[in-house]
Amino acid sequence: MIKNFKDIFDTYEFQDIEKSIYSKTEKDVEIALTKKSLDLEDFKALVSPSAKVYLKTMIEMSNRFTKERFGNTIQMYIPMYLSNECQNICTYCGFSMNVNIERKTLSEAEIIEEISMIKKMGYQHIVLLTGESNRTVGMEYFRRVIPLVKSHFSNISMEVQPLKEVEYRELIDLGVNTILIYQETYNRSRYKSHHPKGRKSNFDYRLETCDRLGRAGIHKIGLGVLIGLEDWRTDSFLCAMHLQYLERVYWKTRYSISFPRLKPCASQIPIKSVISEGELIQLICAYRIFNREVELSISTRERAAFRDVLIKTGITSASAESKTNPGGYSKGKEDSLEQFSISDHRSTDKFTEMIREQGYEPVFKDWDSVLQIN
């Protein structure tokens, strides 16, 4: 009897999937592009090297499917980093415990200062982020700060350490709408080498987080992998498989996929699996053609001109004018406190102007807790 995604995941081998993806032919891609309902084998074909010659067709299909489901809109969100304190060692992260940076956790007064600056930009959807430090930024801290934030925003998402099911239920009661939880890589044999110390080194506990969220009844779950950490095609396939499982089991919950590419940071890890901009477009289109309901999000990690192109490839939400350090909006830029470097430094006004020029409408409020039906 299948109890959670781990039961399914354990029947697969990362290397076997990788070989299967790279063996897909152009004929497999053509078959996938003609089907109304795609399966996971079709997704393999769409992310395979053989799909490269069909990129124009994939973009056209993805753009059409996205407009049919989401209209000509781009949902706008903004991240707010509450803390860069962390108890993990992660080889790719600027917040890693072994990185020599100044540590900072925002007080309630400092959070109000950040909110004041963010509200001037017009945002109603905020993503709260922290390092993974249960002692400093655990449930006790969340109980204090979430009500403070909730009084100013209609939509609250969080990206923090994996929690217990009962704790997720409490976050929902406090007003959290969405939890973003990225596996980073689904390559179990390599996971420990990227996470050598701390609670994050527990692969299975992180893998089972979405099941705890689903049982808790969260409105939306955000999935993703850190593209470049391991083979991006194989990681993306396993993320798609995870998504398919979650949609079938927790069908009342909505889902989103993000596409963070490994970026330079204080830890300076070499990128193992480089994904080009064209391949990232291929990946975004593959997700949209495979799943017309999932929301697809892009951040300011990508350069401005490339983000302009991505608007018409299947993306449904985007951030702008982001700061990745605690206090970044009210205190100004402090590179030494950043989790990673951003590439699109345009203001929110400039970014939304570009969106409108492409025939889309930026949406700052797409959710309110009064709309949720228990």
TrEMBL record:
Keywords: 4Fe-4S, Iron, Iron-sulfur, Metal-binding, S-adenosyl-L-methionine. Residues 72-280 form the Radical SAM core domain. Gene3D superfamilies: Aldolase class I. The keyword Nucleotide-binding does not apply. GO terms for molecular function: 4 iron, 4 sulfur cluster binding; catalytic activity; iron ion binding. SMART domains: BATS. One of its GO terms (biological process) is thiamine biosynthetic process. Its cofactor is [4Fe-4S] cluster. Signal peptide: none annotated. This is Thiazole biosynthesis protein thiH. It comes from Ichthyobacterium seriolicida. The lineage of its organism: Bacteria, Pseudomonadati, Bacteroidota, Flavobacteriia, Flavobacteriales.
